Amino acid sequence: MSLLKLVNVTKSFGGVKAVNNVSLEVQPNVILGLIGPNGSGKTTLVNLISGFYKPDAGDIFFRDERITGLKPYHIANRGIVRTFQLTRVFKQLTVMQNMMAALNSHSDFDSRKFSEILAMMGLEGKEHVVAGNLSYGEQKLLEIGRALMKDPDLLILDEPASGISPTIIERLNKLIRDLKGLGKTILIIEHNLNVISTICDRVVVLNYGEKIAEGTFEEVSMDRKVIAAYIGE
Ligand SMILES: Nc1ncnc2c1ncn2[C@@H]1O[C@H](COP(=O)(O)OP(=O)(O)O)[C@@H](O)[C@H]1O
Ligand SMILES: [Mg+2]
């Protein structure tokens, strides 16, 4: 059984088919990379899965239940949580306050889980630091930590490695692998193909809103359509 299934999903903005008839399945406990040139529809696809946009056509299933058109809050409560391409941490709040803000209520707070997540992000001892005083890379890790507070089954990361240092990229790679070890499923959009080739089990390639290839990184990187899409960028 697939964890997430998209069937012929389409979303247009004016005349632009940002996502065009995309079908795909994500198996549980897999790290799936979503790649493609700028403007190929990756973020729109994530917005559709997470309920920020409603598809014009097609259906989305999570654990075989139809979630098409549900609000982001309901989708998050079912176990799909995403981060944003541009970080959305609250810069004036502390690390801990940012992570608490992910919860529906304070009674959901689990201090052991909080400490574990803090350690996974390498932010131990920084729980009372104001987020705006963290490095940009640490802010991106914090955003992932905040998503993890909801204990999602499917974590969707939109360009987590963009603008961060090689050291933090290594921490990020390890974090994502550790999450897989904990049974999570991860869908990652990333421009940095080193990250994709290092951590992804499978890769889906979009171009002009359409899925043009799917397979292992080695397979898609030899695909003629993929090479043409990247050279034509
Ligand atoms: N909210 C929006 N309004 C209008 N056009 C949009 C909107 N979001 C995305 N688009 C357009 O849809 C296409 C895909 O964008 P996007 O999903 O952001 O691509 P990617 O994340 O792959 O760079 C682009 O042509 C973009 O301009
Ligand atoms: Mg994008």
Record keyword descriptors for this entry:
9 helices, six-stranded mixed beta sheet, alpha/beta, binds adenosine-5'-diphosphate, binds magnesium ion, four-stranded antiparallel beta sheet, 233 residues, 10 strands, Rossmann fold, 25% strand
Please provide a written account of the structure:
- Helix content is about 35%, strand content about 25%.
- By secondary structure, the protein is an alpha/beta fold.
- It has one domain: Rossmann fold, CATH 3.40.50.300.
- The strands form two sheets. It has a six-stranded mixed sheet with strand order 6-7-8-3-9-10, with helices on both faces.
- It starts with a strand and ends with a helix.
- The relative contact order is 0.19.
- Adenosine-5'-diphosphate binds near residues 18, 38, 40 and 41.
